[in-house]
Amino acid sequence: MSLKTPIKDYGFVVVQLLLFVAYILPLKLYEIQLPEWLRYSGLFVLSIGVVLGIVATLQLNTKLSPFPSPVEDGKLITTGAFRISRHPIYTALLFSGFGYALYNLSLYQMLITGFLLLLFYYKSEYEETLLMRKYPEYNTYKKSTRRFI
């Protein structure tokens, strides 16, 4: 990250944190009625999210940042978790949020996960604009790899 972080970066991070806080609030709008097998499949989806998130975080190592602007001394990663998704940490958070909401039978948490999906879509659009400026090869990578799974 450069010395001056764009204000837009802070906006994305603040909204993201607010949605994370909203997700963990113990609110119940409506309890969804689902077959047990479908409810427990949420744990499987959650597990996929956790594994993907751990792998992507380990790949980024010290270059991990909550801000969408690329870190100053970073490099474009296109292998491992980044071969599956251009934004594997966002994907992992969405899988985890949806999986746990499904297991928890929480319509409220599913709605918050939907808002996170919208946020991550727009955050990744902005991030990709910056990545294409920094890494000319990003456009080729973008054509061959999905944004989210």
Oligomer, anyone? single chain
Percent of residues in helices? 55-70%
Supply Rg: 16 Å
- Number of beta strands: 0
Would you list the SSEs in sequence order as H and E?
HHHHHH
The CA-CA distance between the termini, in Å, is 27 Å
Mean pLDDT: 95
Strand content: under 5%
Low-confidence stretches: none
Structural class computed from helices and strand pairing:
mainly alpha
Largest sheet: none
Overall, the morphology is: globular
Alpha plus pi helix count: 6
Could you give the topology of this structure?
Layout: H1 7-24, H2 36-60, H3 81-84, H4 88-104, H5 107-134, H6 138-144
Relevant terms:
66% helix, mainly alpha, 6 helices, 149 residues
What does this structure look like?
- The protein contains 6 helices and no strands.
- With 149 residues, the chain is mostly helical.
- The protein is 66% helix and 0% strand.
Question: Gist?
Answer:
The chain is mainly alpha-helical. Helices cover 66% and strands 0% of the residues. The chain is built from six helices and no strands.
